[in-house]
Amino acid sequence: MKYQIRFILFFLFVGINMTAFAQQNETTIKILLPQTEKWNIKKVSISYSNPAFTDLRNTAIFEQKDSTTNNWTTTISLSTAQEWKVNIGNKWTFNLLLFPNDQLEIKLDEKGAAKFLKGKTAKENESTYDWLPNFYNAVQGFATSEPKEATKKIDSLTNAYISTYEKAFTDSKPNPTFDTYFRTELKLAQILAYNQYPYLYGRQIGERDMSKILTDEYKQSIPTFKADSNTDYIYTSSYLMHVYNNSLGENCVYKEEQSRTVFLKCQYEGLQKIYEENKTLKKLLAFSSTNRVFQSIKMAGVMNLDAEEEKKLSVFLDEMYEDLNKKYPNTEEIIFLKKQIELTRKMSSGSPAASFSLKDKDGKTVSLADLKGKLVLIDFWATWCQPCLAEIPHALKLEEEFGDDVAFVYVCMSSKEDKWKEMVAEKPAQQIQLFVEGEAQKQIQEDYQVSFYPTYILLDREGKIITKNIRPSSNGQEVLKKTIESEK
């Protein structure tokens, strides 16, 4: 009997401590919003994006427990500090650095300014609240400045953020983890601004030759950052991108005449060797490498990769999956990667294209199945997309030449319907102009892997995929002519 009591007490002790441990990792976030019409929102969420796969997210939905107040609360489990993004009604977003076993309470005023009432790092989060979008908005304004003036402005902006942050801690010390995180993210934002400016400036002055702006003098002025090998660092997507792009130096540089597969394989193997001792960073870089291969397959048309190169990329992606599945089985990253590979196979040449039925500009339903018997060139575009609009004159020429054999289908996405109707009102009646939004758009984006605009896909007369490597302004005429002649 004595031993039975001890046995029961032991499991009670373990159970209590395991419960306590679980509770210690729980962090509660409470957001108090103004009770005005402007802040009458239906949903508040917070999400964490895996640095290697930004589409791999953990999301928590806030609850409004009392409908008479505009207060929202959620609880998430954390094992370590992580960067999360709050989304308020798809109108206001901001980042938070969250810690395990914490209680945050944030009050927003009518203009969206935040006061952090509770939290381990309330002062830290408040002093850096909303800094990132404001930083990049300011950088956009530097596009009209000459290079030397622009770099001075970027440095001045960076120093201003550091100064404001440090003034908040004149009488105390910031949390060391948060301090390293913020200073690192700001430095990376500064470097990214330096790298983005030449392209913004070139667009302003109509200069496409970046060598005239990205001079040796300018390149030497770009700040440097050395990746930290500390496995406890809070790796973010910006940190991972910088490490990926800058760790190999001249040892792995892409050249136009080089195989894309060879280049990506060089990056994958090189990064794994460099960060062999840093298990966390090595894992993230490995999966980030697979993501780059996956994106190259998706963007084969834009990158002018031929069918043979696309096949090599697919084989390499399968090899990477086999290798990583042995090293990281049953992880969320490997499960996500497997799903992405399955999606790429659905979009490979010879695979049946997913069916869809959408309304045209006259309200008539048009189904992809209705077009069997013709080649079909689908253009996924958006009203605000300048490259999409630039392709239209070239597509019209193709229609004039191949209209008897090819159905040209224009599917407008991520746009406002009124704007779309205005833009297609004067189009020829025979043109197939379709509009999609909401859940139907999400499905098409997944089925056809549309992650950028414009995306073109050519289907055969049975509705099977011929190629994604087609664009009216470049190889459109050549591909269509070759496809039609091969049928004879």
TrEMBL record:
Keyword Isomerase: yes
GO-annotated biological processes: cytochrome complex assembly
Keywords per UniProt: Cytochrome c-type biogenesis, Disulfide bond, Isomerase, Redox-active center, Signal
Signal sequence interval, chain numbering: 1-22
SUPFAM superfamilies named in the record: Thioredoxin-like
Compartment(s): Cell envelope
Protein's UniProt name: Thiol-disulfide isomerase-like thioredoxin
Originating species: Bernardetia litoralis (strain ATCC 23117 / DSM 6794 / NBRC 15988 / NCIMB 1366 / Fx l1 / Sio-4)
